[in-house]
Design a protein that fits this description.
By secondary structure, this protein is an alpha/beta fold. The chain is built from twelve helices and eight strands. Strands 1-2-3-4-5-6-7-8 form an eight-stranded parallel beta sheet. The model has no long low-confidence stretch (mean pLDDT 93). It binds zinc ion (ZN). The site of zinc ion has 4 residues, from loops.
Length: 281
């Protein structure tokens, strides 16, 4: 079984819709001046079927315009209704919206959302030290036991659209403030996992997972072996960032791992986060 922990879908008319609503700066950065493409839920399901992927987490982006976020959240929730056994919907909010953010999160949870994300601190102007702004979202996520997927990026290396500046230092401050929350750091947490060799980092990251989204664009494939040794395969979640990267490419880079590690990474860890127990699911 394979579960993809990091995919993005959007409705086909999304570009037009977000323009009507006054535009969203995140969408503009990611899709207007770059070759990045968006895909619909239907396309994702096709690709999952072709690649033997049983389930996918469908994420939003780090939206800034709440009306734009609602279109994206509703789309994820509607696609989940169409493919309830195949999709695990997350919703995206910006904690700066205050009460409105919490209301939107509660609305999405009522309709079946299972997590928050992908948050993008740089694009959303979020200071990961700002307890006052973050607390309401983090407390609700903690009481509902839902994970938060947050974008991470390397403090060195090449630039790419949406890279941002959420490096290991900022992400460490964040996980230190919220040790009881389940936090999935996307893109290997911008390299935070390497600092798990430090005792104090390891100590606060008990509920932290690292996802493998876009690995092939960022690291040598040796990272899989090294990461398993550093943090253990129970803390790594297979994710592609599809449509940016295909499952085939990342799975191919993982093939030297032992079977137990591959199983943990490709489905067991997500199954345990969401209590997916039944074998045929
Ligand atoms: Zn990301």
């Amino acid at each position: 079984m394979i579960i993809d922990g990091h995919t993005h879908i959007l409705p086909s008319n999304f570009s037009l819709e977000q323009k009507k609503l006054g535009k969203d700066s995140t969408f503009e950065e990611l899709f207007t001046n770059s070759k990045s493409k968006t895909i619909t839920g239907q396309k994702l399901i096709q690709s999952m079927d072709n690649n033997n992927i049983r389930k996918s987490i469908i994420l939003g982006y780090g939206w800034n315009n709440i009306e734009v976020a609602k279109i994206s959240n509703n789309y994820n929730l509607n696609q989940y209704k169409l493919f309830p056994n195949k999709l695990i919907p997350f919703c995206s909010i910006n904690p700066h919206w205050g009460n409105k953010a919490i209301k939107e999160l509660e609305r999405c949870l009522r309709k079946g959302a299972r997590g928050i994300g992908e948050l993008h601190p740089t694009n959303q102007f979020l200071n990961l030290n700002d307890k006052k702004v973050l607390d309401p979202m983090m407390k609700l996520a903690c009481s509902e036991k839902i994970p938060i997927t947050i974008h991470g990026s390397e403090p060195v290396g090449h630039k790419y659209p949406g890279k941002g500046e959420s490096g290991p230092k900022k992400l460490f401050n964040f996980i230190e403030m919220y040790p009881d929350n389940i936090i999935i750091l996307a893109h290997w947490g911008g390299g935070l996992l390497f600092y798990e060799l430090m005792k104090e980092v390891k100590k606060v990251s008990e509920n932290v997972y690292y996802d493998t989204a876009t690995t092939s664009f960022l690291y040598d494939s040796k990272i899989f072996k090294i990461a398993c040794e550093l943090v253990g395969s129970k803390k790594i979640i297979f994710g592609t960032d599809y449509p940016l990267l295909t499952a085939k490419r990342i799975l191919n880079e993982m093939k030297e791992l032992n079977q137990e590690d591959i199983k943990n990474i490709t489905y067991k860890n997500i199954k345990s986060i969401f209590n997916i127990n039944y074998e045929n699911e």
